[in-house]
Amino acid sequence: MTIQQRLDRWEARAEWPLAAVAAVFLAAYTIEVLVQPHGLAARAVDLATLLTWAVFTADYAARLYLADDRKRWFRTHLVDLAIVLLPLLRPLRLLRLVVLIGVLQNAVGRAIRGKVVIYTVSGAILLVYVASLAVLQAERGQPDAHITDFGDAIWWAITTITTVGYGDMYPVTTTGRVIAALLMIGGISLVGSITATIASWIVQSVAADESAEAAVTAAHINELRAEIASLREELRSPAVEGSGTDHRP
Questions:
Q1: CA proximity to 169, closest of 130, 140, 127
Q2: Which among 39, 100, 229, 231 has most CB atoms closer than 10 A?
Q3: In Å, what is the CA distance from 189 to each residue of 22, 98, 186, 227?
Q4: Do 122 and 203 meet the contact criterion of CB atoms below 8 Å apart?
Q5: Residue % of the chain over a pLDDT of 70
């Protein structure tokens, strides 16, 4: 087994376990933001978050170790490195939610290949949800904050991801604005993927129709050629028989 095959095998086996760990992270983060636990419950949430971060760190280290060209793999997986390091940066710890979206994309994306629209809608719902949690945690309790409860956060996330931006609610913190920028980029990417999918489907449908018409035309031409060849044979047959009769004594 080659090094690349070992890496592919590891990634294939780790997809669903990482998706499960990401789901645990989402549950812990939801409790942290919406419930705001204290005491033992808060420590349990922090422990769950720490364990999920440790799992993703171990996965990153394993993939780096199994890579054939480690320097090239490191350069092409800087986002994965950022996901591992972000929990250490307190102001940007909310961006750990990228872990969840990335893992679910790898784990679920192949399972519904060919159903890009369904996956895109699911991704949009997840993106709106996690962005709502993140911006609520960043904005809540800040002076002059407009987003102070989860309902406001959901409304803000929907208007932002669709690039409508009514302006009635907007983040006032730096972290909230970073989340808003990432959400807008994500919304544009989702719309672009849907548009590209529909355009690709139209092109493929037209190409398939043209190929079918070309095949039918070719079949008709072959039939006509066969009929012409048959007529020529029939025309030659009397001539041959007549010439044979003229030479009889």
A1: 140
A2: 100
A3: 22, 15, 5, 57
A4: no
A5: 76
- Please state, in angstroms and as integers, the Cα–Cα distance from residue 164 to each residue in 44, 65, 75, 194, following that order: 39, 44, 36, 18
pLDDT at 210: 72
Q: Which among 111, 116, 79, 127 has a CA at the least distance from the CA of 192?
A: 116
Taking Cα atoms as reference points, which of 181, 192, 17, 201 lies closest to residue 106? 17
DSSP code for 67: -
Q: What pLDDT, on a 0 to 100 scale, did the predictor assign at position 158?
A: 92
Token pair 């994306």 is found at 109
CA gyration radius, the chain: 31
- Tokens coding 87: 């929990």
Torsion angle, CA of 205/207/209/214, rounded to 10 degrees?
Answer: -170
Interatomic CA distance for residues 200 and 206, integer angstroms: 10
Distance between CA 65 and CA 73 in Å, rounded? 10
Q: How far apart are CA 195 and CA 69, in angstroms?
A: 36
In tens, the pLDDT along 139-182 reads 988 888 889 999 999 999 999 988 787 778 889 998 889 888 88
Q: What are the C-alpha distances in Å from 109 to residues 54, 95, 237?
A: 24, 21, 67
* C-beta separation of 63 from 83 below 8 A: no
Residue with tokens 């909230």: 176
pLDDT in tens, 57-93: 898 899 899 888 889 999 988 877 876 776 545 444 5
Instruction: Note the pLDDT of residue 101.
Output: 61
Q: Which two tokens stand for residue 182?
A: 């990432």
